[in-house]
Amino acid sequence: MADSLSKDDVPAQINRWRGSSSNGSPTNSSQLLAAQAHCRRIAVGHYENFLVASVLLPRRMKQPFYNVYAFCRHADDLADESPSPAIATERLTQWQQQLDRCFAGQSVEHPIFVALAETISQFDLQKRPFDDLLDAFRQDQIKTRFANFPELIDYCRRSANPVGNIVLRMAGADSPENIALSDSICTGLQLANHWQDVRRDFESGRIYLPQDSLTAANVSESMLADDLACDGVKRVIAEQCRQARQFLLAGLPLADRVPRWLAADIRLFAHGGLETLDAIARCDHDTLRKRPTVSKTRQLKLVLRAMLGRL
Questions:
Q1: Matching CATH topology for 9-141 and 143-311?
Q2: CATH topology of domain 143-311
Q3: What is the pLDDT of residues 133-151, one digit of tens each?
Q4: DSSP letters spanning 257-306
Q5: CATH topology of domain 9-141
Q6: Phi-psi category of 172—alpha, beta or left, where left has phi over 0 and alpha has psi -120 to 50?
Q7: pTM for the whole thing?
């Protein structure tokens, strides 16, 4: 990956990017430009850029989105690509410390924070969503099962919803009503991703399907290792997909409450999640056999329809 910590350790990266001033601002414009270019490379080098900083964003908003995305992507890599949970936790703690300094206006060392500091100042971003994201990533290192659906929703509250909160703040549209609608979309997207990746998550040691739902369907964890999903597993996944769809549909009115430049992206996010759920349904909710995906042709059609205001 463009910013993978498994290939390039944190201290080495920090040493290459020292030189920030004591108030957290870049010492010169060339350092800021280099930091922005670093964030841009991370964003455009990952598939998620399709939604996070799509062609629908106005030019003035692309770099700020790149900066926020780079922070999230790097933290996610720390959580998922470190050699062990202990090392991941240590690296996430270091990342949290730099975030704390960034918001305190103190010296920042990593290029992502050099770029992010300007975005924080430009849009008066709040610290809580960034803290919540890192809290969720740290939880991933010690919690791999969820007793029930409310536990899973609490995880989504910290692992997915903060991104929507940050975006609304950047759009100047972070009213409590809008945040609630955004939370619904972000939670729905996170859930859709989980049910798309049941096999992949199980192989990494994590089960997001609620334990009480599995028990009620007489599904044991060992059944998630099968090449084909049994009827019980498919029923559980189908029910979870139904709830994810409800979250996505409930949040769609947000698109009518935000600036026009953001509305198309919101519809693209939500409909992309619905397409993922449709793909899961087409494979009879058997996401053990193969990972259902939305074809690139379908993705392109969604983008074009969003650009034309037809979503």
A1: yes
A2: Farnesyl Diphosphate Synthase (1.10.600)
A3: 999 999 999 999 999 999 9
A4: SS-HHHHHHHHHHHHHHHHHHHHHHHTTT-TTT------HHHHHHHHHHH
A5: Farnesyl Diphosphate Synthase (1.10.600)
A6: left
A7: 0.86
